[in-house]
Amino acid sequence: EDQVTQSPEALRLQEGESSSLNCSYTVSGLRGLFWYRQDPGKGPEFLFTLYSAGEEKEKERLKATLTKKESFLHITAPKPEDSATYLCAVQVSKAAGNKLTFGGGTRVLVKP
Amino acid sequence: NAGVTQTPKFQVLKTGQSMTLQCAQDMNHEYMSWYRQDPGMGLRLIHYSVGAGITDQGEVPNGYNVSRSTTEDFPLRLELAAPSQTSVYFCASSQRRLANYGYTFGSGTRLTVV
User: Fold this and answer.
1) Which string of DSSP letters, residue by residue, matches A45-72?
2) pLDDT (mean) for A6-18
3) How many CB atoms are located within 10 Å of the residue A77 CB?
4) Which chain B residue has its CA at the smallest distance from A6's CA?
5) Is the dihedral of CA A6, A40, B95, B21 positive or negative?
6) What is the C-alpha end-to-end distance of chain B, expressed in Å?
């Protein structure tokens, strides 16, 4: 069974305090790993897609990396506007219909 | 561009009532999906569609029905609502290849069944 586990469940940071979120996965064959940001009361918003081990992608203060078993989302010098829930999801090779399996998310709070 | 539009935003149902959650997208996306989001459980796939007239079950399909008569619309029907269906429901759409754009999600419908 495909599984995605995110840690920690919640993270409190001071503004400027860099940190990393973890997404570990067990799947039969990875087609892609996706990161989303979700603000309260809104739908998830797409951030990155990673396809192969060693791949990295950046957007502003966010950097996502991928290994064969896990992905990290690094937040560098975060600002209060980076406060959100970050979701990780995997698309497995044999899944039809662009199905994604999501992790439980990490709630990030950045205090000024 | 409206993207993915879901209605209603909030709904309270009594046990046993029926209702339809509406979802429409204006991006000409082939693929559409319904997910539910519950605390501590992440997003779980209910049903999905790869094109007009084609639907299939996801991870948690029981108690829900879908249809896809047009590319734009993908309504989710609850026939006999139960308290276990209290959740936030998200509709999402994508191009055939998720690639660098992923899913586009709607803003959600918060459903409470009492």
Assistant:
1) EEEEEE-STT-EEEETTEEEEE-SSEEE
2) 97
3) 12
4) B42
5) positive
6) 36
Q: CA-based Rg of chain B, rounded to a whole angstrom?
A: 13
| Closest chain B residue to the Cα of A100, Cα to Cα | B45
Q: Give me the mean pLDDT over the A71-94 stretch.
A: 95
Q: Which residues of B touch A49 (CB under 8 A)?
A: 98-100, 102
Spatial distance between the Cα atoms of A50 and B11, rounded to a whole number of angstroms: 37
Residues 6+ apart with CB under 8 A from B6: B21, B22, B23, B89, B90, B91, B106, B107, B108, B109
Tens digits of per-residue pLDDT, A29-60?
889 999 999 999 999 999 999 999 999 999 99
How much is the average pLDDT of A23-29? Answer: 92
Token pair 């599984």 in the structure block, residue: A3
Our CA-based measurement puts residue B80 at a distance from the nearest CA of chain A, in whole angstroms, of: 26
| Secondary structure of residue B84 in the 3-state scheme | helix
Chain A positions touching B4 (Cβ under 8 A) are 43
User: Under an 8 A CB cutoff, do A102 and B44 touch?
Assistant: yes
Look at A34 and B50 and tell me if their CB atoms are within 8 Å.
Answer: no
The reported pLDDT for the residue numbered A29 is: 86
